[in-house]
UniProtKB/TrEMBL annotation, chains A, B, C:
PANTHER family: INNER MEMBRANE PROTEIN (PTHR30506), UPF0126 INNER MEMBRANE PROTEIN YADS-RELATED (PTHR30506:SF3). It comes from the Bacteria. Its main location: membrane. Residues 6-81, 93-165 form the Glycine transporter domain. This is Uncharacterized membrane protein YeiH. It comes from Dyadobacter soli. Keywords: Cell membrane, Membrane, Transmembrane, Transmembrane helix. InterPro entries: Gly_transporter. GO terms for cellular component: plasma membrane. It is found in: Cell membrane.
């Protein structure tokens, strides 16, 4: 539990950095815009999940550590952004760990609230991706899930693997780690080999 | 009740098809994007209504049939899309039945939760139109309600007719059917005769 | 209390006018689009705040006066818009009073619900600005908070001043008025002197 909590805070911190860096290419990139974008990117997915599930209070409202992790992420981006931009590969890994973690945390939380497996998968994918979607919609970009890359599909696959392992009785920590590895590997291989999801209309 | 439930499922199925077809003209039209768009289009309006009313659990979270109807709609679009695109007129009718049904179901649900008539009309229009609005915002289109067509205005008129008939004591099923006819006729006549809502600024 | 309620209704009325006027430059500016935009602009911020806080029923659902104030604002815009467009300075003042008021009302409401000061500031800023953000996202504009102007930052500063004065025991009405003056002055001075928030990336 404690390890997972630390990972969640680290994931939030990483998402805040990638959110703040996302305004780099915008014309207007003042302090407020960068902070707001970092905030939305970090908490958007989990917030949507909890609002849809009616699970109150929202995590970042009851646990102030999350807000502090975001503020730290914003400050870190401000101070080290030249260094961070050179670290794109590291950031990609951070983001990939982040989405793996957020997918499984979201799936588990939904399951614990007693919803059906199909809903738990949706909540897992939403937790990982909707922060980025809201950020992209607000900055008038095509949302990340509509870009060609395998992104949400990796989360979707990992959430399904989690449910399958869980349903056949594999121990929870093993299930969590194996599903996370699926998401992380799938995303890394997809980017390396430029995999894309099959077209819907042939 | 049973007939209305079947109609709701059919409406959800029809909205999923029109949602999946909506990515046809997008550059990126992979399986994930199409499914996501279909999902958002179908459940967006009712979800917004229930979140605003604080009515939990959300319908599609407690009744898995809705998710299954959406999945069926996505599969049907994938298999039959060439056929479906030739059927544009039939699809228009499906969509029109869908918005009529969703408007009145939304209005009724709000009334049953004890809100004022003005609020019930807003909830009816939101149920029918906000799924499409969210879909359009996410794909960077001008939202459907801002296009010149009579669309939301037909829903608005139908919801008002429902309230008037209901307040003068007309039987519920008669009220429902008459209001639905108003929405369907208004939309068909509007498209046929290219009616548009009066401009706000002269 | 009574004065604050009247101010809130006036603020809602003013936000509805600025929302309806916002469609002036859109291609499609029919009655429905203008009314919808006015509605979203007025209630969007407070709605988001209450949904995030899980505070039900939403204010505009339980108090119909708010809907009536919005309808009045739409009608006033329709009748007097030529006059209103000449009054741009007055409208700017209205909008500035509106965001000051909404910021502090939102901050206070969140505090009363027992959240931490950091969360209360976020809720205050959201109350004042997110209606405009949702409006801008829906009409495909760059959201107001990303434009160069000092806007949300004024709200943020005012909410912080409120919390500081409140924490050192200043009387509530004095705190409210002083914080409002900070927001109003900051915004007026910023527009007059073309102040902008420091860039995030140097």
């Amino acid at each position: 539990m404690s390890i997972q909590y630390i990972l969640e805070i680290v994931g939030t911190f990483a998402f805040a950095i990638s959110g703040a860096l996302a305004v780099k290419d915008q014309k207007h990139q003042d302090w407020f815009g960068a902070s707001f974008t970092a905030f939305i990117s970090s908490i958007g997915g989990g917030t949507l999940r909890d609002v849809l599930l009616g699970s109150y209070p929202l995590v970042w409202i009851s646990d102030i550590t999350i807000i502090h992790a975001i503020i730290l992420g914003i400050l870190a981006t401000f101070i080290f952004y030249k260094f961070l931009l050179r670290l794109r590969k590291t950031l990609f890994l951070f983001d990939t760990f982040g989405i793996a973690l957020f997918t499984l945390v979201g799936t588990e939380k939904a399951l614990n609230l007693g919803v059906r497996p199909e809903i738990a998968v949706i909540m897992g994918v939403f937790t990982a991706t909707m922060g980025g979607v809201i950020r992209d919609v607000m900055t008038n970009e095509i949302p990340i899930i509509y870009r060609k890359e395998v992104y949400a599909t990796a989360c979707f696959t990992g959430a399904c693997v989690y449910l399958i392992l869980d349903s056949i009785g594999v121990e929870r920590n093993v299930t969590f780690i194996l599903s996370a590895i699926v998401i992380i590997l799938l995303r890394i291989l997809a980017v390396r080999n430029q995999w894309s999801v099959p077209r819907f209309f042939r």
